[in-house]
Write a structure and sequence with these properties.
The protein is of the alpha+beta class. It is built from three helices and two strands, in the order E-H-H-H-E. It has one domain.
Amino acid sequence: MLEVAPRSKNYMTYEEAILYCQFLEYNGHRDWRMPTRDEYSSNAYHDARVGDWYIDRTVCYASWVTPVRDV
């Protein structure tokens, strides 16, 4: 099962998105990460307001990230 945190408020690079997820403290949890490509494509993830970053999606522009965690 996947829990989704709120999307970042600002655009960020891929590297910044990774750090954002690693250091996010939300809802009493600190074990957030970037979603995988499969998670990014899943319906559960897209029920949330999502960003464009997921693991290994290294594109040249900046975007939002939506952290996830396993529950």
